[in-house]
Amino acid sequence: MSITIFGTPVCPNCKSVTSFLSSNNVEYSYKNVGDDIEQSELEAMVGRQVRSVPVIVAEGHEVSFDELKTRVTSSALSAELGGLEL
Predict the structure, then answer these.
(1) Is 60 strand, coil or helix?
(2) pTM for this prediction
(3) I need a labelling partner for 32 at 20 to 30 A (CA). Which of 14, 45, 70, 82 fits?
């Protein structure tokens, strides 16, 4: 799963997202809005005005943190179940 987090260094919610991904051993890229990408570029990418971060893009589509957690959890569960012999 390709995941990019767009955030800022002082954003506590950005830290929550990246901590969650790291604790679940999920690879992601992080882009600092204002340094790595301009806000106007991010807005063009997601097709809306961005007023807050984090902006989470998974597989080319913007998702909420709740949706990301569901995807990560279900992927981990699928991987676990795939290794079981029935």
Answers:
(1) coil
(2) 0.86
(3) 70
Phi, psi (rounded to 5 degrees) for 25: 55, 40
**Burial (Cβ within 10 Å: 0-12, 13-18, ≥19) of residue 46:** middle
For residue 70, give the 3-state DSSP assignment: helix
Q: Report how far residue 24's alpha carbon sits from residue 26's, in angstroms, rounded to the nearest whole number.
A: 5
Q: Identify the three-state secondary structure at position 84.
A: coil
How many C-beta neighbours within 10 Å does residue 75 have? 13
44-78 confidence digits (pLDDT tens):
999 999 999 999 999 999 999 999 999 888 876 66
